[in-house]
Amino acid sequence: MKSNDSFNTVIVGAGFAGMFMLYRLRMLGVSARVYETGSDVGGTWYWNRYPGARCDVESMQYSFSFSEELEQEWEWSEKYSAQPEILSYANHVADRFDLRRDIQFDTRVTSITFDESHNYWTIKTDRGDQVSAQFCVMAVGCLSAANLPDFEGLDEFEGSIYHTGEWPHDEVDFSGLQVGVIGTGSSAIQAIPVIAEQASSLTVFQRTPNYSVPAHNQDLDPDYVKSVKSSYPDLRAKARARPTGFYFEYDTSPALKATAESREQQYEAFWARGGLPFLGAYGDLLFNKEANDTIAEFARKKIRDIVKDSETADLLCPDNVFGCKRLCVDIDYFAVYNQPHVRLIDVSDKPIERFTKKGIIANDIEYEFDSVVCATGFAAMTGSFDKIQITGRDGLTLKEKWRAGPRTYLGLASNGFPNLFMITGPGSPSVLASMIQAIEQHVDWIADCIGHMKDVGASTIEAKVRDENDWVDHVNEVSQVSLRSTCSSWYVGANIPGRPKVFMPYIGGFPIYVDKCNSIMMGGYEGFIMAGSEKPTTPPQVRCTERWHVELDMEVISPAAIAANRVPIV
Length: 570
Ligand code: N01
Known about the structure:
Helices cover 31% and strands 16% of the residues. It is α/β, with parallel strands linked by helices. It is globular, with a radius of gyration of 24 Å. The structure holds 3-acetylpyridine adenine dinucleotide (N01).
């Protein structure tokens, strides 16, 4: 399909972010077109179909909150939903709100160029479309650009190669096959136990061991579901007041003040609950290395308890800061190494040498495979932006501007790129919050902004350089408070050679961030230049953002609490 249409807004991506943005823009009565590379909605959950893929935030919270009817009618079956169920949910949302008629699938946006003389964006696609729009919203996802390392000899391999983040849509059957898996991050840790059930042999290449906490996944108890549904607004409000944007019980007292015995009991109790909330056992775990050592040692002991072969157990034990890399949540991961057909190959000292026709050479040994699964992660946070030629004022490309690391105001906009918004962009809580909540908050803010500009006839909005610089400095400064900034992770772009090392998400906590966004909006979009307005003094009308007026739990997120290192951020 070719077109020369013009829209109020073009949205790039039809995951949860793009779908909800479209819904909100329709409410405003403005025209919008969504372009999506995939053949259907779902984003991350459309692409990540690898065996074992599931969510690590509880289903009752990993869902949209904007529609009470949607909340009430959708039934989650498990505590942590598996990918097929989340994708069904995305499809249900698309059907229920009739979203597909404004989404063009199988279409990759290739370039987005700002026309300074007319103040509009020209959007081109790989299908030959060229359309214009006053606004562009980048709903491209934080973990959507797959990273396939440049392994020598990859093309020579005669077996099948898969990447977890670009999994085929037809069923992949590993029955009776010799399978290799590269990587031991969240994707691998979920996939390995499931692949091991089918494969005749499974060889895992590990560069860095990872901490992982059992999910203790289970079918949802209908009474629990009923009780959540009867008070959903309360749960959502409590979630929004948490640094993570999702609710769980945690203890803000310092680990180092507890006796060794009571710490052990506390860790056992949180381990028994499982999942990411394990990090909520104490308030100082991500701020004080000595405190962190106690939880790290507990987790290593658990690995040694589970894995029978002591050499393998040693290899699986990380020695870095617990929770510094994104914590993994698993179902029977470590126990898989007790199975005779599963082996672990350490490639920490000497990288994988090359692929051959038959397999992989590592540590001077050739391992033969029918299939290799690369669970090698993503060019996080900025990778999906890099794939599109985005050119703003004075011919400056976003890639060039972000050469030394992303620069945004609030993770929503970037100077030099007027009327271009980002949903969960770098510099916002994004991946450190519950993603759907973070998405909803951004979409509501952007919708209110576009609505206000329509009300006052403004032509452009652009982040001011000074405020953007201040925000970038603040994002960096806050990250230094946390132990999270101390290791090589995808949070800092360190998983891919050559990328700048900058802590990309905003770690100051979801409620503080939301409060900041609200006050900027209510102050008439402070830190932005809004041009062309016919009624510059008109106060912004709050249409969508109303529901984000969070009650700040100052005991947890006040500067005093932060100074006392008592903010469990997951
Ligand atoms: O990617 P990763 P992921 N040779 O970057 C290794 C979310 N997610 O797809 O650690 C050998 O974490 C690399 O080694 P190292 C979640 O936020 C969520 O697993 O860089 N190995 C690492 O072990 C998660 O954090 C869920 O030394 C190489 C692995 O590949 C994020 O997505 C599920 C290598 C990559 O791990 C990314 O997770 C899945 C090389 N050349 C994902 N290059 C949920 O549960 C890379 N590696 C919701």
